[in-house]
């Protein structure tokens, strides 16, 4: 019904717009001529109303349910399987090690060598044997459990095994909830109620429309499989547990499972008492010896190393480290690699072995190690588990101060806007119109400096909102009005806009044939209002896109990255409407006292300037900044350009995993190892050609 109403209003407004346009052109009796000026404000009012109606109609959510819901269900099931089963579980380090070493499973060989021990608050305890599936154990624990274990014990692998079995069931049973794997590390950024966070993650990570995602979560049709509770920042971990408990209390029939390291779970002030627990036991020496014997000659190198160094047995209790040791020592004992603890030396040997066995002509081993170390360091600093191309920001450069790319990109964009406006002014108003160019350049620079959400570091955080900034919901009219008043009264930008546009008014209104104080005032007020409107709309648009974030599953192009590509599309659609509104407003103020064609030319010039500002501030400026950052990082040899081929190479070397539109390290411990190379100062960036005496900072 609301959609029909919107369509009717659009038709009515379009009809009125045509009528008012005819009135504005003067098709009226001569005695009405003194009142023609009324048509211009009416025209602006109708144009504004039509724009608002169209924007509201475009934002109206589509229907949820029926065939569209069935299609969305199939899409989500397919993406969960592709992202986590095909790309991660089927290519886990345990599986890849067996494939690379040529280990074939025997008839009595389990898929994974570890033991699962389950317990429930009703007193049930049990051990998962070869004949019991993880899904059956999940059912026995009332479909709500926590998977615990030491680092590298196989928690995520067990969770994904459960995901595989639940996906198989959901694909045959349309009433079964949809299992969805999500990482909890991003929850702490905004600390939302879990239901709201789940809906937003479905949109951001899997590309599900927000209305459909919210409806599924509310109806209990999503089965959350939450990984990485231990990766939530420690000061927020108890809050995260409270949010999970509150969600489960509100929806007790919704199945749920999550993973956490056992030590971090024990340190929680409040545990999740309603859950059963599945603890992954460390591998015992008899289990390891049986595993080595079954592998035969494939693990001869590892057996030789263990025989030569008894202390290495302490690492074999972890399935992750056992797989890494199998790959690292595939060639048998060799010279010691790396420094530091024995664990660090093991990871260093693994990295050296994989890069030697899978060489790439474009990336030398020391380059690949440096790239992975910077990647791990930045992901750890931002508490990110999944890397996406939007994450590359100015602070990745070890030698370039963060504000420099902002300064360069904003200067270039401001000059470009000024040149275009000056050319348009020359074509529309002759030499006087050229004066609008420098003013437009200065106002663009001021607006970009005032802007809060064009920073690449903020854009990269996909929906991370500064505390207390404002409510999460965006109301276009209210927020635009708030930004308008904030710019005008609470910042130096407002005073600069007034002063700059006063200069334009003086040039246009008090020179040549356009003399008169009233006319100069009209030019000044028109330019000032248009500039303030453009800035306020630009800030509101940027904030809205910052809150929403790019959809999941977007093509992984380098520049512009997914978030900036979404901004560019939105800005290209919004600039014509802003240009029409701002130009009409400025043109009316000039045409009212003069009643001639100067108002049209001036409105066209001001509308062009406003549209260019919106395009520059929302999309083009950050895109130029991103290009400069990628170029600088490539010159420093901190990251390659393009980056995606290297990430795919790291996947082949079993350092990373491809997950949808992002990448994850094969394990958190490997991320920590590479990140430590930067923080410990073991790697230094290559000195750029133009840097001679500047001291380079590590990491």
TrEMBL record:
- Per its UniProt record, what InterPro entries does this chain match? NACHT_NTPase, P-loop_NTPase
Q: Where does the record place the NACHT domain?
A: 143-283
* Source domain of life: Bacteria
The membrane spanning regions, by residue number, are 35-53, 407-428, 434-451, 492-515, 521-549, 570-592, 604-624
Q: Which UniProt keywords are given for this protein, alphabetically ordered?
A: Membrane, Transmembrane, Transmembrane helix
| Pfam families assigned | NACHT
* Protein's name according to its UniProt entry: NACHT domain-containing protein
**Provenance organism:** Micromonospora rubida
């Amino acid at each position: 019904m609301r959609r029909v109403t919107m369509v009717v209003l659009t038709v009515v407004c379009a009809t009125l717009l045509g009528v008012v346009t005819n009135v504005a052109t003067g098709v009226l009796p001569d005695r009405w001529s003194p009142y023609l000026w009324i048509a211009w404000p009416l025209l602006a009012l109708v144009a504004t109303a039509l724009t608002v109606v169209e924007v509201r109609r475009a934002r109206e959510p589509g229907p949820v349910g029926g065939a569209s819901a069935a299609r969305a269900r199939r899409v989500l099931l397919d993406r969960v399987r592709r992202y986590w089963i095909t790309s991660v579980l089927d290519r886990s380090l345990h599986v890849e090690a067996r494939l690379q070493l040529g280990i074939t499973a025997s008839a009595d060989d389990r898929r994974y060598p570890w033991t699962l021990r389950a317990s429930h608050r009703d007193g049930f305890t049990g051990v998962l044997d070869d004949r019991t599936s993880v899904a059956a154990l999940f059912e026995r624990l009332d479909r709500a459990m926590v998977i615990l274990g030491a680092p590298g014990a196989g928690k995520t692998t067990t969770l994904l095994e459960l995901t595989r079995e639940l996906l198989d069931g959901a694909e045959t049973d349309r009433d079964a909830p949809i299992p969805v794997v999500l990482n909890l590390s991003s929850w702490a950024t905004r600390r939302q109620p879990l239901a709201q966070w789940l809906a937003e993650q479905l949109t951001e990570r899997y590309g599900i429309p927000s209305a459909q995602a919210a409806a599924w979560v509310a109806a209990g049709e999503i089965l959350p499989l939450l990984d990485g509770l231990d990766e939530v920042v420690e000061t927020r971990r108890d809050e995260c547990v409270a949010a999970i408990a509150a969600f489960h209390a509100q929806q007790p029939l919704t199945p749920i499972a999550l993973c956490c390291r056992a030590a971090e779970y024990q340190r929680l002030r409040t545990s999740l008492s309603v859950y059963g627990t599945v603890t992954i036991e460390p591998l015992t020496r008899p289990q390891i010896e049986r595993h080595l014997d079954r592998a035969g000659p494939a693990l001869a190198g590892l057996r030789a190393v263990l025989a030569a160094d008894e202390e290495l047995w302490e690492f074999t209790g972890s399935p992750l480290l056992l797989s890494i040791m199998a790959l690292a020592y595939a060639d048998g004992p060799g010279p010691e690699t790396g420094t530091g603890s024995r664990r660090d030396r093991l990871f260093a040997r693994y990295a050296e072995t994989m890069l030697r066995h899978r060489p790439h002509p474009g990336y030398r081993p020391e380059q690949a190690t440096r790239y992975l170390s910077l990647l791990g360091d930045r992901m750890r600093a931002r508490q990110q588990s999944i890397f996406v191309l939007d994450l590359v920001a100015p602070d990745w450069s070890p030698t370039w101060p963060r504000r420099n790319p902002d300064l360069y990109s904003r200067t270039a964009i401001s000059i470009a806007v000024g040149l275009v406006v000056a050319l348009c002014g020359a074509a529309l108003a002759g030499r006087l119109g050229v004066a609008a160019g420098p003013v437009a350049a200065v106002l663009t620079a001021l607006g970009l400096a005032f802007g809060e959400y064009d920073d690449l570091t903020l854009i990269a955080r996909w929906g991370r909102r500064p505390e207390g900034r404002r409510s999460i919901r965006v109301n276009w009219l209210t927020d635009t009005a708030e930004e308008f008043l904030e710019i005008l009264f609470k910042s130096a930008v407002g005073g600069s806009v007034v002063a700059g546009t006063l200069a334009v008014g003086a040039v246009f209104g008090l020179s040549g044939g356009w003399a008169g104080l009233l006319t100069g005032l009209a030019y000044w007020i028109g330019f000032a209002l248009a500039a303030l409107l453009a800035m306020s709309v630009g800030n509101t648009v940027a904030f809205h896109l910052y809150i929403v974030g790019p959809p999941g599953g977007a093509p992984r192009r380098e520049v512009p990255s997914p978030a900036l590509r979404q901004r560019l599309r939105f800005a290209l659609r919004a600039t014509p409407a802003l240009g029409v509104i701002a130009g009409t407003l400025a043109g009316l103020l000039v045409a009212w006292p003069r009643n001639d064609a100067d108002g049209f030319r001036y409105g066209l010039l001001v509308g062009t300037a406003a549209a260019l500002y919106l395009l520059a501030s929302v999309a083009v400026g950050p895109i130029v900044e991103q290009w400069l950052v990628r170029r600088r990082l490539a010159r420093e040899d901190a990251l390659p350009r393009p980056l995606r081929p290297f990430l795919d190479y790291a996947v082949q070397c079993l350092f990373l995993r491809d997950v949808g539109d992002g990448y994850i390290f094969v394990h958190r411990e490997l991320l920590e190892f590479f990140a430590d190379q930067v923080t410990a100062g073991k790697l230094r960036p290559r000195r750029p050609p133009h840097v001679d005496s500047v001291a380079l900072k590590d990491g």
